[in-house]
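S1.2 Input.
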Amino acid sequence: MKHLRVILLLILPAAGYGQSLKKVSIYADFHVNKTVYDRTVSNNAGGFGGGLQIFLNTKSGFNPNIEATSDAFGGTKELHVTSDGRPIWPKDAVGSILGGMSLKLTPKSYVNLAAGPSFFDSKTYFTIKPAIAIRFPDNQRFVFKIALMHVFQHDDISNQPFGYLNFGFGIRFI
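S1.3 Output.
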């Protein structure tokens, strides 16, 4: 029995050192949105959405990632018109495909900056998305994330950007 304990004490730590870093982590994300700025804030006051984020894990503190999100917005949906009578349509849904880089701040937290196209009203707009996130518990299966989606909404109506906060919760399934 004594030999068994000694063998186990020698083998178990060695097994931990033999574990390799997972190459990819995939998180499913569910979030609520709050519009911070828009040319018709009341039409798109808030909403909800979901997404998928894929991280390429590296030994450095920088991890490339790609994410795809879809957001639905609700609000008053009033008719707003320009000074020359053209309608300013509310946003019902916004889809995005963003690529970026995350920087690990601590073993359980990171900041992320992603950029790419967002799609709504049958048009494509350039978007940037800074975020900060905390993973928990020790196995980092869950993540809480706060992000700002800044959509450069430059079109023939105005050059006013569209921005909204995401408050999200995610779960890692790979």
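S1.4 Remarks. The first strand starts at residue 24 and ends at 37.
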